[in-house]
Amino acid sequence: MSGDNVEDQVNHASNSKGISLPMTRVKLIMKSSPDVSSINQEALLLTTKATELFVQHLALSSFNNGSGKDNKTLLYSDLANTVEETETFQFLTDILPKKIFARDYLKLIEENPIEEADN
Amino acid sequence: MAERPEDLNLPNAVITRIIKEALPDGVNVSKEARRAISQAASVFVLYATSCANNFAMKAKRKTLNATDVMSAMEEMEFERFLQPLRESLEAYKKGQKGKKEASEQKRKDAKEKKNDKSREEEEEEEERMEEDQEAENEVEEEEVEN
Fold first, then answer.
1. How far lies A98's CA from each of A66, A83, B32, B36, B146, in Å?
2. Contact A75 B30 (CB under 8 A)
3. Distance CA A15, CA A109 (A)
4. CA distance B60 to B144
5. Is residue B146 less than 8 Å (CB to CB) from chain A?
6. Which of A38, A106, A82 lies closest to B40 in space, CA to CA?
7. How many whole angstroms separate alpha carbon B119 and alpha carbon A12?
8. Element (H or E) spanning A39, and its range?
9. ipTM of this complex prediction, to 2 decimal places
10. Is the model's pLDDT at B63 over the cut of 60?
11. pTM
12. Around A24, how many Cα atoms within 13 Å sit in the side-chain half-sphere?
């Protein structure tokens, strides 16, 4: 199943507009953005559709980039790795950070002590 | 209008469905991964909106339009989305046109019906009279044959 075919399949699977996500909800999110006054219907449609394409793209990229050990499950770590390694996903680094064990983090701090400004 | 945090999330069921349809058959998605993708999608909407809005403001417009969104996709380096987006827009416009024509046709029909109602009634009357005449003729023929 190649990436191209998938989009066709999604379009057939969803309704006649080819959109599954609720546009009202997308509009709500858009309006929470500062400085945005109004959004025309076509812009709303395109943003909704783009979000669906984005979800597919993020999921598939992460899966293909995956651990290789377990090719049957998409894990959070696959996503975090892909975000770190892919330029177009850089805007997600804050919300999909790589996870680190607390003990490893503490170790890191020990080895690299944070210097205090006033000493 | 105050938005609660959960309102800025997209429905989990739909997100899950989109993910599953994008992945090969039989692949599972961890709950954590699903939640993360959903959050990423919301952030995507915000980022795309902000970007599109910049284009609108540059053009001194207060309303975001289709070209603003397309420009935003290019800016965000999601050129791969442009073609499917154009197709969606075309399909949407055709649908809108069809709807518009259908409702215009409805109004047209209703108007004609109203004007022609009296004429129709006259025509119906004529038809009935013709039928009666034919019936009478048949009867006469039979009588002649007999």
1. 14, 9, 13, 12, 104
2. yes
3. 52
4. 90
5. no
6. A82
7. 48
8. strand A38-39
9. 0.77
10. yes
11. 0.73
12. 2
CA distance A69 to A27: 40
Residue corresponding to tokens 């969104």: B69
How many CB atoms sit inside 10 A of residue B143's CB? 8
Asked if B21 lies within 8 A of A22 by C-beta distance, the reply is: no
pLDDT, tens digit, 9 for 90 and up, residues A29-73:
999 998 899 999 999 999 999 999 999 999 999 999 886 666 789
Q: Which residue has the tokens 């998938």?
A: A6
| Predicted local distance difference test score (pLDDT) of residue A68 | 62
Residue-averaged pLDDT of chain A: 84
Report whether pLDDT(B47) > 60. yes
Residue that the structure tokens 């991964």 belong to: B33
Smallest Cα distance from A100 to chain B, Å: 15
Phi/psi at A38 (5° precision): -140, 160
**Three-point CA angle A59, B51, B2, nearest 5°:** 85
Q: Is A29 in Cβ contact with B45 (below 8 Å)?
A: yes
Q: Coil, strand, or helix at residue B60? A: coil
- Say yes or no: B143 contacts chain A, CB-CB below 8 A: no
